Please model this.
Amino acid sequence: LKEAGFNGYHLAEIVRNAGWEEKLKYFEDDQKLNKLKEAGFNGYHLAEIVRNAGWEEKMELLEKVDLPQFLSDNGLTHDQLSKRLMKKDGLAWLNEVVRAA
Model:
């Protein structure tokens, strides 16, 4: 994970809540991780995205889209997207936006 840009803070955020084993297992998949890295996401963004409940669905939805195009089409930066997904309605919002794309 260090090679992917994760530092101790990011890993601490990931393992902070329940389900941390599954979260770490998700990031062990090189194909998934490389797609996110190539799209410009860093450890901080990814730690925020998986921080709360519904992280699996969020990541599945993000896997379905062309991430650079998705960010551009929605006028978002990586930081704005990760912060938006941390909100209470983040998953519902993402479902709506992906469905509309």
Summary: The chain has a mean pLDDT of 87.
